[in-house]
Amino acid sequence: MSTSPRLEKVTPANVDAALALRVHPHQERNVSPVVRSLAEAYAFGETAWPRLILDGDRLVGFLMAFLDIPWNEEKDPADRRSGLWRLNIAADAQGEGYGRFAVEAVRDELRRRGTPLMYVTWEPGEDGPGEFYGRLGFRTTGEVSGGQTVGVLDV
Q1: Measured between alpha carbons, how far is 133 from 75 in angstroms, rounded to an integer?
Q2: Rounded Cα–Cα distance for residues 62 and 150 (Å)
């Protein structure tokens, strides 16, 4: 990281750059493109928290958190969770600490909101980000959501 990374809201001025962000081709099956995330953010309203990750003027990634969403209403209507919904780090910016920054930024936002646990889901398998999340302290819950492994971190 060359300067101090920061989060910014998606705005009309930067939405085209956000939509052009691409991960490595072999990762495309593991994470939805930014365009899908922004459509979901629109549909989910206040429970979605999309942000761009910038380092100086360079767009290096996109994240979207989920805030206090019903997890499995049929099983437990009171189970509401918050966490990292999407993380897309630009192919040319990977390995520079931006993923860690993104996870820590969401954790800090959840802490600020008084949320005790941060959840994340990921595609299992060799190319999936399971090791990355494990290094950051996430532990698997034993749950599967939409075919993805569920992890949790104490905030």
Answers
A1: 26
A2: 20
With CA atoms as reference, report the closest residue to 80 among 110, 122, 56, 123: 110
Rounded Cα gap, residues 138 and 92, in angstroms: 25
Other Cβ atoms less than 10 A from the Cβ of 53: the count is 25
What's the whole-model pTM score? Answer: 0.92
Is residue 3 over pLDDT 80? no
**How do residues 126-144 score in pLDDT, each as one tens digit?**
778 999 999 999 999 999 9
Return the beta strands (E) in the chain as ranges: 5-8, 48-55, 58-70, 80-89, 117-122, 139-145, 148-154
